[in-house]
Design goal:
With 257 residues, the protein is of the alpha/beta class. The protein contains eight helices and 13 strands. The strands form two sheets. Strands 1, 2, 3, 4, 5, 6, 7, 8, 9, 12 and 13 form an eleven-stranded mixed beta sheet that branches. Strands 10-11 form a two-stranded antiparallel ribbon. Helix 1 runs parallel beside helix 2. The longest helix has 21 residues.
Length: 257
């Protein structure tokens, strides 16, 4: 492993052109949950296969501790690799899987995206993000985000044994759930003015993001809206549901399953 090789240094693109995209985020997939894996594979074979590109805007995995853990997620990666043979796949880091790196990209045929990324679709300019970057009212979280996305933190973390990193990830998820219950709803949502400024900086016609688990169209100005992707979740032990965002002509449409 090169001295300063870490996910934050992985090559990423910040501008793409799309022809017929399908957007998803916040799947929180865990290879140990056969129901989740089956739901994702069914999604690829039904909804996603009708489109040209699959754009994953973060939190695809419940957690990711490094690309040396690829072997632990083969049940998820295998259908993704098969899908990449006929479709383009774009992957953006979320707050749960920011340790995804070049080995994952090579193994799956995915292109890693910077956050945010500008996407051109027909004559529209889309600004894509996971969304947590814009939750600026949550000062504590933003400090943590800067730390774990830094070169030094990721470089040090990858030097821990894989078993140790898996334990750290599990404990962090438990602690995160406790803190989240204490935070106000506005702290965990994106800041509207921050999003507006980011969109205006690139002359975006619309914004697409995930993270907040509040799917729907949210007007920002008279001519600008953000489209929030929904999370995938268990509504019952044997019932897994989710959604994606596609375009019909130039109109964003949510598809639920």
């Amino acid at each position: 492993m090169p001295l300063f090789s870490c996910p934050t240094n992985s090559p990423k693109v910040n501008e793409i052109t799309l022809t017929d995209p399908c957007f998803i985020s916040d799947l929180h997939l865990n290879s140990e949950d056969a129901g989740e894996v089956a739901a994702f594979e069914n999604f690829l074979c039904t909804f996603a296969k009708k489109r040209k590109e699959l754009v994953i805007l973060g939190d695809f995995f419940d957690y990711w501790v490094g690309d040396d853990a690829l072997f632990t997620a083969q049940s998820i990666l295998s259908p993704l690799v098969k899908f990449s043979q006929t479709h383009s796949i774009y992957f953006m880091h979320g707050n749960r899987d920011f340790m995804v790196s070049s080995d994952f990209a090579h193994a799956t045929g995915a292109t890693l995206l910077a956050d945010p990324t500008v996407a051109h679709y027909q004559d529209l300019t889309l600004l894509l993000s996971h969304g947590d970057l814009w939750c600026t009212k949550d000062v504590e979280y933003q400090k943590l985000r800067r730390k774990v996305r830094s070169v030094w933190w990721q470089w040090l973390m990858l030097r821990f044994p894989l078993k140790k990193r898996l334990n750290i990830a599990h404990n962090a998820r438990m602690k995160s759930k406790t803190k989240k219950n204490r935070k106000k709803a506005e702290e965990m949502d994106v800041d509207a003015q921050t999003v507006i400024e980011a969109a205006q900086n690139v002359s975006a016609d619309m914004v697409i993001h995930g993270h907040t688990h509040r799917p729907g169209q949210v007007p920002l100005t008279a001519s600008l809206s953000r489209y929030v992707l929904g999370d995938w979740r268990h509504e019952a032990p044997d019932h897994f549901c989710g959604s994606c965002l596609v375009f019909e002509q130039k109109t964003p449409v949510y598809l639920h399953f």
